[in-house]
Amino acid sequence: MLRLYSSEKYKSVKHFIDWLATFGETEDGGVTRLLYTKEWKNAQNALKQEMSEMGMETYFDTVGNLFGRIEGIKDKQHVILTGSHIDTVVDGGKYDGTYGVIASLLATKMLLEQYGRPQKTIEVVSLCEEEGSRFPLTYWGSKNITGEYSLENIRYLRDLNDISFQHAMGEAGFPIASYQNNKRNDIKRFIEVHIEQGSILEKNKADIGLVTHIVGQCRYTVQLIGESNHAGTTPMAERKDPMVCAANCIVTLTKKAEASYYQGLRVTVGSINAEPNVSNVIAKSVSFTLDVRHHEKDILQEYCEDMIQMIKEKAMKSGIQISIKKWADSEPVALDTSLHSVMRKIIKNKGLRDMEMVSGAGHDSQILGIHYPTTLFFVPSHKGISHSPLEFTSLEDLENGVSVLKEILYKLAYEGVEL
Ligand code: GLV
Ligand code: MN
Ligand code: MN
Predict the structure, then answer these.
(1) Where are the domains positioned within the chain?
(2) Model confidence pLDDT, tens digit, residues 28-70
(3) How is domain 216-330 classified at the architecture level of CATH?
(4) Which ligand is nearest to the CA of 293?
(5) By 3-state DSSP, what share of the chain in percent is helix, strand and coil, each rounded to 5?
(6) Which residues are within 8 A (CB) of 388 and not within 5 positions of it... i.e. 6 or more apart?
(7) Is the CB of residue 245 below 6 angstroms from any atom belonging to ligand 1?
(8) Model confidence pTM above 0.85
(9) Is the peptide bond before 276 cis (omega within 30 degrees of 0)?
(10) Does the CB atom of residue 361 touch ligand 1 within 6 A?
(11) How far away, in angstroms, is 196 Cα from ligand 2 center?
(12) Which ligand number lies closest to the CA of residue 330?
């Protein structure tokens, strides 16, 4: 794809998104931009340049979160933070995360052009990592802002190519020798706009989703270890086949999740690996991931505990050894809704419709929302498709989100609305 010139990019939010999608674009029109890769680094540096051209003071923190700062005239210390993440899943869409970064940049640019410097400091953030798609760890960006993560959390992590987290970080220009994880205490509010990634808005013919809660999620890697042997000579009754055990577990996991008691629960086995992965060999080992989500902590916990027990029992019955690693565990979060009435007025005045909703996708807002008052709102995703090259949001919907964000930032940073 042709890289757009700076001025051309500002024609619309869509141009800007298409431009950023050139960093890591895939053959089928998706984007793969994993943490600390060349594509990721080039995208962050290109955004840094854009921020500077817009008149922002720019800086990276020690893990690669990028900030563009416009210091307030009256209140320098307290920051209204707005943005999202730029990492993607493998062959993901171009809107997830990126839209929030670009909407924040454009809204701030428009405010600066129209009204000059704000009373309170605004910072736009392009968070380094949210997805957990390169290393088995999520929210590396936001959890470093809140001081929850340290180098301990990444010490032994390696990607699928056996590259260590620490090495990848250093290669991207963030050596661990410089690492700091002090919690930021200057953030007054975080505002994130994101595509919905589901079909609730579209089905309800609403333009903006005001998020009240974000589901909690647990992610595991389950490894089943059996006995590798000949596919033709080993009688069925004498096998210790981890593939069959895995298949059994996956069917039970899904069936159980469909029970009405667990309404709202989402369970996904999105990745599976067999060793040695050969057609005429009974597998020695099978590993699969398990992603479980619900907006009620107790239900999430109960399901996970029951299922871990079920996997252990099935494995034991088949003479299979297991290892279960939980590598992500975030609680459901209730977001601050104090801005919702102001936002409803803004949305109504624009002739748009809003609705309150729960987010089934994870967002940086659920991490930052525990530490700072946080507002998350959505624009529709066409047919609810996301984490796919087919992810799409219309220009009109993208622009609606930018204009709502612009007005809410105006209220907070220019009018100094205290909430
Ligand atoms: C992040 O996008 C997630 O919800 O998996
Ligand atoms: Mn996202
Ligand atoms: Mn995502």
Answers:
(1) 13-215+332-414, 216-330
(2) 999 999 999 999 999 999 999 999 999 999 999 999 999 999 9
(3) 2-Layer Sandwich (3.30)
(4) 1
(5) 35, 25, 40
(6) 30, 91, 92, 93
(7) no
(8) yes
(9) yes
(10) yes
(11) 9
(12) 1
